[in-house]
Amino acid sequence: MQMPRSHKRSLGTTFDTVASHSFHVAIIAYCIARMEKLSHEDATMAMSMGLLHDLPEARTGDMDFISKNYNKVNEELAIADQFAGIDFGEDLKKVVDEYEDRKSLISKCTKDADMIEQMYQEWVLSWQGNKLAKDWFDGDFINRVPYLFTESGKSLILEMKDSDPNKWWWTEFVDKGVNYKHLNGKESEKR
Predict the structure, then answer these.
(1) Which of 68, 110, 143, 174 is the most buried (most CB within 10 A)?
(2) What's phi and psi for 179, nearest 5 deg?
(3) Domains along the chain with CATH numbers
(4) 183 to each of 87, 165, 176, 177, 178, how far by Cα in Å?
(5) Tell me: the pLDDT tens digits for 101-138?
(6) What is this structure's pTM?
């Protein structure tokens, strides 16, 4: 929760931590898995992978795109140490190992969610005026999107690209009628 994402040095303004990233990945992974027609149980496993996929970073730190070109991180040792002495540690390690192997559709859905969540950060920041994030987002369409594993992941990112991050609440609470009671504490009609 206290481990910031290191892309802050390249993106400037950002609002996520490793914990918030993992939470978002988990939710997106569940959705992609269901869109890929996997069962609730399989999608729940994708959600678990999303929560655990960056757990080693609690010990190793988050290495950004630049740092990974110069450093090698021993994530296997971090995982082994994190789960040592826990009765169910081997079960948790199997989840992380399956994610890293990327052989199952569940792990592929989760990896797509990981990449989409990063692009989501870039997308929101670009809407807030961050030109660096816009460059990253545009570049990721060339360098990430073609390599997504699932058609559902590609579909989600294409829908995101042409949308407005505020439209969902604007449509729900403004276009459909303002709830004036929440704005001024009393019922009133639109003037």
Answers:
(1) 110
(2) -90, 90
(3) 8-184 (1.10.3210.10)
(4) 52, 22, 15, 12, 9
(5) 999 999 999 999 999 999 998 898 899 898 988 998 99
(6) 0.84
